[in-house]
Amino acid sequence: MQKNPFLKIGLSSLLATGSTALVCYGVGRFLGYGSFAFAWVLNFMLMAWFTFLVNQMSPNLQAGYFLPKPFEKEGKLYQYAGIHAFRKMLVWIGWEKLMRKEHGLKINATSLRQLEYNTRISETGHLFIFLIVLLVTFLVTMHNTGTLWLWLTNILLNVYPVFLQRFNRPRYLKILQKHNYLEPDRKTQSTKSIATT
């Protein structure tokens, strides 16, 4: 009897979602929903949860949303927001070195396409997590509990990573276009977008 892959993905995703919610609830219950520990665990459990789902589903992420917008020209918006300071912090804590070791630095079509796709995955994940943490923050506020750590960790661990992906993606796309590495279904979209950035 052939196994249904969709059923397996659905059940494993449901189990991962339930486990994540249970762990976060337990930490909040015992350590307090306004504590740094809860905010930290919530964010990293959600990151692990999203990573698991992505590995199960391998989304395409071809929406026009991911293409650079005119107001993102040269990344100045993100520079004003302090993206370079955030990048320096990632270098300081060793995160950038870890990512380079994991993904490598090969300059070829396959690796550049993967780097650009990874920015889409990362942005999607942090955007979803930002919205979930924001919802949790409002729920915690309704119970008159402090939400400072939830706000700070959400900005640091989700908002700035989204900024970073949108800052890096136009540079990957320009290199891909320059060397004619763009995949056929992305060429038309990317050419128009890059021309405005």
TrEMBL record:
The keyword Flavoprotein is assigned to this record: no
Transmembrane parts of this sequence: 31-54, 124-142, 148-164
Any GO molecular function: acyltransferase activity
Keyword Nucleotidyltransferase recorded: no
GO cellular component, one term: plasma membrane
InterPro entries: CrtO
Compartment(s): Cell membrane
Membrane topology category: Single-pass membrane protein
Pfam families: CrtO
Pathway where it operates: Carotenoid biosynthesis; staphyloxanthin biosynthesis; staphyloxanthin from farnesyl diphosphate: step 5/5
Coiled-coil zones: none
Keywords tagged on the record: Acyltransferase, Cell membrane, Membrane, Signal, Transferase, Transmembrane, Transmembrane helix
Family that this chain belongs to: Belongs to the acyltransferase CrtO family.
The protein's role, per its UniProt record: Catalyzes the acylation of glycosyl-4,4'-diaponeurosporenoate, i.e. the esterification of glucose at the C6'' position with the carboxyl group of the C(15) fatty acid 12-methyltetradecanoic acid, to yield staphyloxanthin. This is the last step in the biosynthesis of this orange pigment, present in most staphylococci strains.
Name recorded for this polypeptide: Glycosyl-4,4'-diaponeurosporenoate acyltransferase
Organism listed in the record: Rufibacter glacialis
